[in-house]
Amino acid sequence: MPWSSVIGQQNIAALLQRAIVSNRLPHALLLSGREGVGKSALAVELARATNCEAPHVSDYSIEACNECHSCTQMRSLQHPNLRFVMSLPAGTADAENDMKADLIEDLQQALANKSTNPYHQMRIEGATQIRIGQIRDVKRSLSLSATQRGRRVVVIVEAHEMTSEASNAFLKTLEEPHPNVTIVLTSSRPERLLQTIVSRCQQLACPPIDDDVLVSYLVDKGLCTTTEAQLVTPFADGSVTRARDFLGEDVQGNRSDVVELLRTALRGRDFRADLVDRIRAITDGRNKPRMELMLSLLAVWIRDAKAIAVAGYDAPIQNADQREALTRFATSFGHADVASILADIEKAVGALHRNVTPVLVFLRLMLSIRRSLFHARVKAPTA
Fold first, then answer.
1. CATH code for 3-207?
2. CB-based burial label for 300 (10 Å; 0-12, 13-18, 19+)
3. Rounded to an integer, what distance in angstroms lies between the CA atom of residue 128 and that of residue 190?
4. Beta 127-129 vs 88-89: how paired, if at all?
5. Predicted model pTM
6. Model confidence over 343-361: pLDDT tens digits?
7. C-alpha torsion sign, points 110, 111, 116, 118
8. Which tens digits make up the pLDDT trace of 120-140?
């Protein structure tokens, strides 16, 4: 799996390769960026390249051969020089030797999933904290001689989840660097890390993945059609993880549901009972990814209608297969304050994240959109 498999991070990959080739790899790296942009995947490629027995090296790049014994071990993430540290559930042992069989099985499954999907989110159900025992275990292992040639790489996944005790213990580890060891911290919330830890790491920010790159990835992997990819990527926030979560839902079916919900909200005076019934059906089961996807699809629909209202029937839009319906909608509501409506949708997403009752979130949103759209129609200029 070459560096290029980590999509959208060519600049970061190039920086890491130059550091390896010039023998200037730091003892501690902080890769920051939102979930699903490839931070831990980059760490794996770093470990693969620095441990390969016959790497392909040029002046500025290094690529693992993917054939030697070390590369074979890395392929399954079972190399002795690669170690992952991640949050554990409450009430479990910190040290590997003391862990119960079912927890060890969960950790092994997480590694197996990561080995086949570089964007797999390494998360065990119920896990919330990286504890001091785990950090002490890492420190002990680094004090021992390596069992295999190459560079030891420790990846601390979502390092901001370290407890205060673990953070302080880890700080001591950073202050005593080991030769031929690189510790890679990944974090989607780097502001939660101790500044004393951040200051001792070389920091590299991994940007969100461009929408067109994300669309190509999803389609090339056979995960969806181009139309479906174009529907979800605008609100995937440049994250493969979020995009795949959305694709776990019926994208076109959810779009139909939320557009019908919008139409219900725009009916005559006796719309409220039907609106509440539809909202209850949509929010049944409290599937947060599905509800968030629907709000994303609603925002895209509103944007497309505005685009047609401004630029005409042939305007470039995301919902190209719904052009006729969008044109009819734009004829009636094309003068709406789209920025205000999109802000309301964003507030609704935030409310879902804060665990506000979904029925209330959707009801408030649809009533607000109704007021905005009807106000716009009243204020629309006449020919």
1. 3.40.50.300
2. buried
3. 16
4. antiparallel
5. 0.74
6. 999 999 889 988 899 999 9
7. positive
8. 888 888 888 999 999 999 999
104 band by pLDDT with thresholds 50, 70 and 90? confident
**Residue of 267, 288, 28 lying closest to 278 (CA atoms):** 267
CA–CA distance, 363 with 354 (Å, rounded to integer): 16
Q: How far apart are CA 360 and CA 25, in angstroms?
A: 52
Quote the CA–CA distance of 114 and 45 in Å, as a whole number.
12
Phi, psi dihedral angles at 204 (to 5 degrees): -130, 120
Enumerate residues 6+ apart whose C-beta is below 8 A from 158.
Answer: 86, 87, 130, 186, 187, 188, 189
DSSP state letters, 267-309: S-GGGHHHHHHHHHHHHTT--HHHHHHHHHHHHHHHHHHHHHH
Kindly report the number of other CB atoms within 10 A of residue 270's CB atom. 7
Residue 68 pLDDT greater than 80, yes or no: yes
* pLDDT of res. 383: 37
In this predicted structure, which of 35-44, 144-153, 207-216, 224-233 has the lowest mean pLDDT?
224-233
Residue 1, pLDDT > 70, answer: no
Long-range contacts of 359-367 (CB under 8 A, 24+ apart): 359/276, 359/279, 359/280, 359/283, 362/261, 362/279, 362/282, 362/283, 362/291, 363/275, 363/276, 363/279, 365/295, 366/261, 366/262, 366/264, 366/265, 366/275, 366/279, 367/265
Return d(Cα 315, Cα 46) in angstroms, integer: 44
Check residue 382 and give its pLDDT.
41
The total number of residues shown for the chain amounts to: 383
Stretch among 48-52, 131-135, 243-247, 279-283 having the lowest mean pLDDT: 243-247
In single-letter form, the type of residue at position 319 comes to N
SS3 content of the chain, % helix, strand, coil (to 5): 60, 10, 35
Domain locations along the chain: 3-207, 249-379
Residues of the chain with pLDDT > 90, as a percent, come to 68
> Which residues 6+ apart lie within 8 Å of 199 measured at CB?
none
Residue 113 tokens read as 């999933």
Helical (H) or strand (E) element with 31: strand 28-32
